[in-house]
Amino acid sequence: MREEYDFSKAKKNPYAAKLKKPITIRLDEDSVSYFKAVSEEVGIPYQSLINLYLRDCAATHRKLNLSWK
């Protein structure tokens, strides 16, 4: 291992902006169970499926039709 390294010609990671940010979110048990079941069918981790679904909603500007009673 060198004592010093020269990073003067180093480039920033072009993918750094796309890194995932860890958050805490509270979801009901039914929602988590649904995504876990789907994840076993398709072989993708359930947290990745939730992220893909939310990303699709954001990309298509999908809004919920909420009516409070």
How would you describe this protein?
With 69 residues, this protein is mainly alpha-helical. It has a domain at 26-59. It is built from two helices and no strands. The radius of gyration is 20 Å and the shape is elongated. The N and C termini lie far apart (67 Å). Pfam families: BrnA_antitoxin. This is Antitoxin.
Content of β-strand: under 5%
Structural class: mainly alpha
* Number of DSSP-assigned strands: 0
Mass-distribution shape: elongated
Distance between the termini: 67 Å
Q: Any idea what the radius of gyration is? A: 20 Å
* Helical content band: 40-55%
Total helices: the number is 2
Give the topology string: H per helix, E per strand: HH
| Overall pLDDT metric | 92
Largest sheet, described in full?
none
Multimerization state: single chain
Low-confidence stretches: none
InterPro entries: BrnA_antitoxin (IPR025528)
Protein name: Antitoxin
Short description:
41% of the residues lie in helices and 0% in strands. The protein is mostly helical.
List keywords for this structure.
single chain; 69 residues; mainly alpha; 2 helices; Antitoxin; BrnA_antitoxin
Strand and helix map with partners:
Blueprint: H1 29-42, H2 46-59
Helix pairs in contact: 1-2
Organism: Candidatus Methylopumilus turicensis
InterPro entries: BrnA_antitoxin
Protein name: Antitoxin
